[in-house]
């Protein structure tokens, strides 16, 4: 099928049929990944292939935004981690990142990406493939590749949580759970946002010219700059599920964030969309607030898994 060419998530079985039968075979998906990269500025396409604890294989690609400064780009590894988050994965075991244009060499992620990976539970145990042409290569842990690092706190990225946000004012009137409002999709995204350092969660929902929607949420890094904005996160969904569509097919966008947030995305989001989306793209911002009553329905339980401390957020069921 034509849409198989745009596949960013593979079940273990599907990956096997692509030749990814064991860790050293992750490179078998690299040319597929690299072909999906969008690098109109550097022309340097990067692919990343990763295996999650579920056994599924995820792809990541670099995405550069034409006309915008380089720091707005999405690195292939950031794309892959966001892809994990959008698919409710819990972590990452293995990673292979291309470092040559022929897809024969694999290396360590850049410093920013190594630090970004740190936000996940068990990040130090992620095994990263180092390999050049004609050799099998070897795996090195992130612990080895990032010896002196900033350590994140808790909760960690990919741990289930709910920011308990509700839309402010009349926008917050209750909708059915299967409503088609873009603002409700952006709110749901904001509720998944990972913003433990500034408590400024945000989410974005985009719609294309066929009425198909995509969403993503702001992901922070303890080291600040490796953080990924909510527009970029929604663009990951757009690239992963949009069957190769161009950003100029984005016709409607909603951002949800807190009013007077310590970190506001509005100005940056508008600037990015003014530059890359359809010329008449409709951009709306809805504010939200932390619903303390909703929050009281959750408790955070310290949890130990594989000897590592973490937190589990559970909903309290009241009779
Ligand atoms: O770890 C890295 C380093 C760079 N890039 C991308 C960013 C930019 O688009 C291009 C050139 O730096 O490569 C990645 O995807 N991952
Ligand atoms: Zn990087």
Automatic annotation (TrEMBL):
Domain annotation CMP/dCMP-type deaminase: ranges: 21-153, 177-299
Pfam families: dCMP_cyt_deam_1, dCMP_cyt_deam_2
GO biological process entries: pyrimidine nucleoside catabolic process
Enzyme class: hydrolase
Listed InterPro entries: APOBEC/CMP_deaminase_Zn-bd, CMP_dCMP_dom, Cyd/dCyd_deaminase_Zn-bd, Cyt/Deoxycyt_deaminase, Cyt_deam_dimer, Cytidine_deaminase-like
EC number(s) stated in the UniProt entry for this protein: 3.5.4.5
Signal sequence segment: none
Cofactor stoichiometry and binding remark: Binds 1 zinc ion.
Family: Belongs to the cytidine and deoxycytidylate deaminase family.
Subunit field text: Homodimer.
Protein name per its UniProtKB record: cytidine deaminase
Organism from which the protein derives: Arabidopsis arenosa (Sand rock-cress)
């Amino acid at each position: 099928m034509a849409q198989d060419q745009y596949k960013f998530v593979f079940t273990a079985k599907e990956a096997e049929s692509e030749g990814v039968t064991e860790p050293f075979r992750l490179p078998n998906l690299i040319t597929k990944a690299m072909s999906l990269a969008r690098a109109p500025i550097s022309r340097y396409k990067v692919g990343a292939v990763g295996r999650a604890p579920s056994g599924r294989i995820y792809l990541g690609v670099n995405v550069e935004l034409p006309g915008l400064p380089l720091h707005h780009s999405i690195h292939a590894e950031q794309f892959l981690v966001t892809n994990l988050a959008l698919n409710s994965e819990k972590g990452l075991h293995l990673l292979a990142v291309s470092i040559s244009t022929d897809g024969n060499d694999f290396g360590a992620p850049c410093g920013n990406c190594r630090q970004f990976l740190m936000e996940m539970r068990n990040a130090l145990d992620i095994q990263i493939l180092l390999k050049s042409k004609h050799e099998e290569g070897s795996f090195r842990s992130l612990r080895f590749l990032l010896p002196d690092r900033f350590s994140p706190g808790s909760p960690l990225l990919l741990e289930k949580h709910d920011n308990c946000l509700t839309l402010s004012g009349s926008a917050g009137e209750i909708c059915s759970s299967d409503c088609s409002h873009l603002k409700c999709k952006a709110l749901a995204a904001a509720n998944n946002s990972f913003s433990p350092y500034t408590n400024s969660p945000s989410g974005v929902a985009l719609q294309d010219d066929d009425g198909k929607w995509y969403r993503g949420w702001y992901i922070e890094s303890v080291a600040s700059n490796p953080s990924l904005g909510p527009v970029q996160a929604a663009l990951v969904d757009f690239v992963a599920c949009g069957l190769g569509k161009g950003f100029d097919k984005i016709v409607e966008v909603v951002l949800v964030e807190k009013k007077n947030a310590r970190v506001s995305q509005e100005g940056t989001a508008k600037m990015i969309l003014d530059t890359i989306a359809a010329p008449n793209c409709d951009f709306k911002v809805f504010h939200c607030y932390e619903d303390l009553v909703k929050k009281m329905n959750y408790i955070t339980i310290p949890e130990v898994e594989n000897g590592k401390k973490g937190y589990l957020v559970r909903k309290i069921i009241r009779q």
